[in-house]
Amino acid sequence: MGFFKKIWNWIDDRSGISETIMPLAKHLVPPASKWSYVFGSATLFCFILQVATGIGLSLLYQPSSQNAYHSLEYITNQAFLGNVLRGIHYFGASGMILFVGIHMIRVYITASYKFPREMNWISGVILLFLTIAMGFTGQLLRWDANGVWSSVVAAEQLSRVPIIGTYIADVLLGGQAIGEHTLNRFFSYHVFIIPAMMFILVGFHLFLVFRNGISEPPKPGRLVDPKTYRKWYQHLLAKKGVPFWPNAAWRDALFGAVVVICIVGLAIFFGAPKLTQPPDPSIITTTPSPDWYMIPIFALFALMPPKIESYIIVIGPLVTIFALLALPFLSNSGERSPLRRPWAVFGTFLVLIFVFSLLYIGLKAPWSPKFDTKPIYKQIKTNNPDMEKGMVLFYKKGCQYCHQIKGHGGMKGPDLTLIGRTWDKNQLKVQIINGNKNMPAYGSILTKDELNQLVNYLAALR
Ligand code: HEC
Fold first, then answer.
1. What pLDDT is attached to residue 321?
2. CA of 435 to the centre of ligand 1 (A)
3. Using the 8-state DSSP alphabet, how is residue 375 labeled?
4. pTM to 2 decimals?
5. For residues 232 and 245, what is the distance between their CA atoms, to the nearest angstrom?
6. Is the CB of residue 125 less than 8 Å from the CB of residue 148?
7. Which parts of 142-246 fold into alpha helices (H)?
8. What's the pLDDT tens digit per position in 179-223?
């Protein structure tokens, strides 16, 4: 024992571990912490789980369009505990998004973003968007039809942003269309860039929790006054404070443990989400849809009136981000209790109803395109090389996922078998370049030649 104690003493003396940890563990926090305060740490537990399983997955995953799908099949079906590992990473992501949401709602409802915790809120908002970005980029790494389709939709939305849209889509996807570069880029985003930002921000967020203290549970009529708050808070701690560990933190530890057990349990029971077909759409039979936490966003875009869509795509996210960041500056003092802030509670309910309705609509609507359609140029033979080129494009550019020609293709859009009878070439061009209600705009995705070949082919369908 003496030997190990010596080693520990040496490590502790040279590194200062207990000097750093003990004050953190023993620092005083307001009494009467509640169960509603555990969601932030639950998010952190999920994050740690994601980092650990993510590293595990990265050892076997190959980020190239040739090998990605097969390396995932290998992980899922052959690698030791691979399916469970993928499962934990999937359910961990779901848990993280869920708890980030609940944590944010709790902070908003109890107005914990008010003085002096404005910066906690701001770093939290950025973390929220980084978390969503992780969900989105991770989905593409699966490199099956779901992930690829989701990114196609997003890219088309982005490229509609006036003036800079094409440029943004270019940078994000690494080219005009989803391909090898996209996968490489998304791998970089998902594994290096966003996690690096998250590590820094999570550290900062936690530092701020210690620096500014855990917010005391609100009481109606007890107002926050930036001039006196810090003094008052110190006074509260001195009089009634309890040590963080174990008085407050045992709830975090217990809840975190339950969360981790549930995630691992779900992963063992249900395993990872089944890989849908590889992005080559000629092999398959399922109806793809994005992961549940992406569905509200996609449903929103699917439902938006086409006339205002291009504006909303730009303005919507900007306004949302701006409003969230501005919140603590708009009201950083005064009442914190939800009982005295009925509009805040009501607004939160409205947002929740909105998001859940979108989720419901998205889950029910058959707005997914059909990926199992067989390439039309293999079904219908033609001796005209120009027609042949049009047909190939009709399939390769994804038109066929949504449109039927002579019985081949999806049903999301109108049947185009006889489109040349009613639509002339100019009308066709306009439709393809600009898209419409439920059809993506192809303006930035097709070259001039490709557009002409497609239009010539469609115009000849009579
Ligand atoms: C995501 C599904 C989807 C994809 C992919 C898609 N479309 Fe469409 N398309 C639609 C829908 C839905 C409509 C009709 C409603 C509307 O205009 O929004 C439509 C309408 C059209 C029309 C007008 C037909 C009419 O009778 O109204 C043409 C022509 C057309 N699409 C051609 C194409 C071509 C060419 C491509 C490939 C470059 C393509 N579409 C890709 C969904 C899609």
1. 92
2. 7
3. P
4. 0.73
5. 23
6. no
7. 145-159, 165-173, 180-188, 194-212, 229-240
8. 778 888 899 999 999 999 999 999 999 999 999 999 999 999 999
Please state the atom number of ligand 1 nearest to the C-alpha of residue 428.
29
Q: Pocket residues for ligand 1 (CB within 6 Å)?
A: 369, 397-399, 401-403, 412-414, 416, 419, 423, 428, 431-432, 436-440, 442, 454, 458
| Three-state secondary structure of 96-154 | HHHHHHHHHHHHHHCCCCCCCCHHHHHHHHHHHHHHHHHHHHHHHHCCCHHHHHHHHHH
The amino acid at residue 251 is R
Report CA(223)–ligand 1 centroid distance (Å): 57
Structural domains for the chain: 27-364 (1.20.810.10), 376-459 (1.10.760.10)
d(CA 384, CA 397): 20
Instruction: Please state the separation of Cα 40 from the chain's center in Å.
Output: 18
Q: What is the residue-wise DSSP string for 6-42?
A: HHHHHHHHHH-HHHHHHHHHH-EE-SS--GGG-HHHH
**In angstroms, how far is CA 242 from the centroid of its own chain?**
37
Pocket test for ligand 1, best of 287, 426, 431, 461 (most atoms within 8 A of CB): 431
Task: Report pLDDT for 287.
Answer: 43
**Distance from residue 443's CA to the centre of ligand 1 (Å):** 13
Q: Which residue would you say has higher pLDDT here, 180 or 37?
A: 37
Which range in 84-93, 282-291, 296-305 is most confidently predicted, on average pLDDT? 84-93
The residue whose CB lies within 8 Å of the most ligand 1 atoms, and thus the one to mutate among 395, 403, 433, is 403
Rounded to whole angstroms, how far apart are CA atoms 459 and 418?
A: 9
Task: Tell me, in angstroms, the distance from the centre of ligand 1 to residue 414's CA.
Answer: 7
* d(C-alpha 195, C-alpha 110), whole Å: 29
Ligand 1 atom closest to Cα of 401?
5
**pLDDT over 90 for what percent of the chain?**
48
Classify residue 127 as exposed, middle or buried by CB count within 10 Å of its CB (0-12, 13-18, 19+): buried
Residues 226-254 have pLDDT tens digits of: 999 999 999 999 999 998 888 888 999 99
Phi and psi at residue 243, in whole multiples of 5°?
-65, 140
CA distance 158 to 170: 10
Region 169-184: what's the mean pLDDT? Answer: 76
Q: Which atom of ligand 1 is nearest to the CA of 455?
A: 35
